Structures are given as structure tokens and as C-alpha cells.
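Question: I have long wanted to understand how a fold can be written as C-alpha cells. Here is the record:
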Amino acid sequence: MSESDTSALSLQVLGLFRIIFKSSNKHFEAIEKAVGFSGAQLWTLSEIAQADGIKVSHLARVMSLHQSTVSNLIVKLEERQLVDRVRDEKDRRSVRLKATSTGLAVLGRAPAPLRGLLPDALMRMQPEQLAALKTALDTVLDLMEIKTERYAREPLGEPITLDKS
């Protein structure tokens, strides 16, 4: 492949990244307009509703987020009375999460997919496609001079905190 062909192809791929992220951002804006809070909060609420009685640690694994990040999302949902923390009857130290009736009503009017466009698309891909995509993205990250690994466990559509380093 010639240098000009490679350059043209790299710009096409860059355009695809732009489409992915701009489309995701538009979806987050639609969510915010429809329900009044972030896409990450909506995904959290939908996971809680699907797995009634889920623990915070399990929810963090399901969403591939830091447990502290998930805890912060839950606090925001609790403040809106969309979820409740319920102590386990047998083990009072154990807390389970439940969507409230208000939370379920919000899910009913929220734009799909509830987990966001990109996570939903990735979950619907074939395993071999995901593996090839992961390999290609690992290469992109290896070629980038600046990358912040902790961003892998932060939700899309939420403000990021910039490193001071």
C-alpha cells in the first residue's frame, strides 16, 4: 500500500472514530434531555433494574467501572429516589440495590439502548470481531505517546478529571 493510500485510509478510520464518539455524545444528550441525568447514571439504573438485588461490587464488574465510580453513580440515583439500598436480612453488612417504581418509570421513557450506543454495539459483536478490534485498538494505544490507562474504568459521557502529570 502506498504512503498516500495509507494516509487516506488512516483519515477514513479517524472519521469512523469521530462518528462513533459524536454519535455516542448525541445519544448521551438525548438521554439527558429525556430523563434529566447522565447516560452513565441511566446505564447504572438499568443494570440495577435488570438484576434486582445486585451488589455494588458485582455492578462495578458488570459495567467495568471502579467500585468508587459506581458508588458515586448510585448516590446520584438515590438522591433522585430512583434506587434504594436494602440491607440483607441475614447479613446486615451486605447491601443490595433495587430500582424504585420511579426508577422503573424513568427507564420506560428513556431512549434505547439504555447502556449507551457504544457498549450496546460492542455487546452485540461476534467474539472474533471483538478480538480483532481489541488487537487493532491495542496497537493504536501502543502507538500513542500519551495514554491514560485509568480512563478504561471511567464511564463514557461523564466529565473526566485531567491528570496533572
